């Protein structure tokens, strides 16, 4: 009995099941009805299972458990950094979760698309004052933005 328990314990591995090939992170008001929609359609057309949030997700101060789970169940995240991305606590929480998941899994890729913003812009700096009451969260957001901004990515102006 003990031998079978030991062998089953030693061979038991938690295998991460992914549901999505790609998770798209974006600021809806900036890119939902143009770049992000086109990218989403192109990914699906090419056989990828891509998660793009829709209007039915509940919006609040924290990302929903559904959205958090979708991030965890994705192999790749594409972060579309646009003019107003860093002004959204929702986007920044999502980004922090993406970076956290990327840090846990070496095989999880994160790609950045700089849509109408320069990768060297300090777009978050002007919002730090607004969110200063939650210093710990601001530090987490800044670290996530710095991490993603340092990635090789695509810089799109139009």
Which helices and strands, and how do they pair?
Elements: H1 2-11, E1 20-25, H2 28-45, E2 50-51, H3 65-72, E3 74-81, H4 89-104, E4 109-115, H5 125-128, H6 135-149, E5 153-156
Parallel strand pairs: 1-2, 1-3, 3-4, 4-5
Notable characteristics:
alpha/beta; Rossmann fold; 5 strands; disordered N terminus; Toll_tir_struct_dom_sf
Written overview of the protein:
The chain contains six helices and five strands, in the order αβαβαβαβααβ. It is an alpha/beta fold. It has a single domain (20-156), classed as Rossmann fold (3-Layer(aba) Sandwich). α3 (65-72) runs parallel beside α4 and α4 crosses α6 (135-149). The longest helix has 18 residues, at 28-45. Residues 1-15 have low confidence and may be disordered. Pfam families: TIR. GO terms for molecular function: NAD+ nucleosidase activity, cyclic ADP-ribose generating.
Strand content: 15-25%
Q: Which second-level CATH architecture applies? A: 3-Layer(aba) Sandwich
What best-fitting shape do the alpha-carbon axes yield?
Answer: globular
Largest sheet: 5 strands, parallel
Uncertain segments: 1-15
Q: Could you say what the CATH topology is called?
A: Rossmann fold
- What's the name of the CATH homologous superfamily? Toll/interleukin-1 receptor homology (TIR) domain
What is the count of structural domains?
1
SSE class: alpha/beta
Please give the radius of gyration in angstroms. 18 Å
The arrangement of helices and strands along the chain is HEHEHEHEHHE
Can you count the beta strands? 5
Write out the strand line-up for the largest beta sheet, numbering strands in chain order: 2-1-3-4-5
Percent of residues in helices: 40-55%
């Amino acid at each position: 009995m003990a031998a079978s328990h030991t062998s089953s314990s030693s061979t038991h591995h938690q295998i991460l099941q992914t549901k999505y090939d790609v998770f798209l992170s974006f600021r809806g008001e900036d890119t939902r009805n143009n770049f992000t929609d086109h990218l989403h359609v192109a990914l699906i057309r090419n056989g990828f299972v891509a998660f793009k949030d829709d209007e039915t997700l509940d919006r609040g101060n924290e990302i929903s458990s559904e959205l958090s789970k979708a991030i965890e169940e994705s192999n790749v995240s594409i972060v579309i950094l646009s003019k107003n991305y860093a002004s959204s606590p929702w986007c920044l929480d999502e980004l922090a979760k993406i970076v956290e998941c990327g840090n846990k899994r070496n095989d999880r890729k994160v790609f950045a698309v700089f849509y109408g913003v320069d990768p060297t812009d300090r777009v978050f700096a002007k919002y730090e004052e607004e969110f200063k009451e939650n210093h710990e969260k601001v530090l987490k957001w800044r670290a996530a933005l710095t991490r993603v901004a340092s990635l090789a990515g695509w810089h799109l102006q139009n």
